[in-house]
Amino acid sequence: MEGVSQLKEWMKASNNIVFFGGAGVSTESDIPDFRGVDGLYQEQYKYPPETIISHSFYRKNPKEFYRFYCNKMIFPQAKPNKAHHALKKLEDMGKLKAVITQNIDGLHQAAGSVEVLELHGSVKRNYCTKCMKFYNLKEMLASMDENEVPRCDCKGLIKPDVVLYEESLNESVMSKAVSYISNADMLIIGGTSLTVYPAAGLIDYYRGDRMVLINKTVTPLDDRADLVISGSIGQVLHDSV
What we know:
Helix content is 35%, strand content 18%. The protein is built from eleven helices and nine strands.
């Protein structure tokens, strides 16, 4: 594939690589992008996904929120793919310093990656909004009441540790991401359209000359990248590491 040999050379010459990834990394584990509006979606939901997974909608209509959330955003059977395993290998080599992800599925950690910054949180973590008791994903799903809403033992509503629309990203996570990217000698961006802000704005902090963009479709930042590879993020990383 065109560009892979250049990617290999840059990886060999780099010792401070950061990976920034989006939904395209997870779709190769058969996790669909929830923004995809298909026939099934149109039949089942009265509102666009951005409305349903907003903070205000969650507060006003938790039953409908969880119906969408459980159907469209939780995939407990999903397994890490070639991209996740290649990044783990790159980390083991001492070259990759951090994975910064917009995904909430926890697959990078499942593949063994250690330094993972989850910009939008994780479905694996859930908290009671009343007493702050922690629930893992399995426990959260088991706590659904007759209204299909997860309730704590204290009767409080359980909320996923996921950043909803209208909510701010975690300042500490963002600060660490800025630090990693600004100090990287190579930035690999994969499986993201780079249209979701403020996360996509992190790219502006990269100061090096080895910005690699791997995506199946064109992005707004293609002209800023030093290398653009059109193709499967999993296959490209598998063939490069």
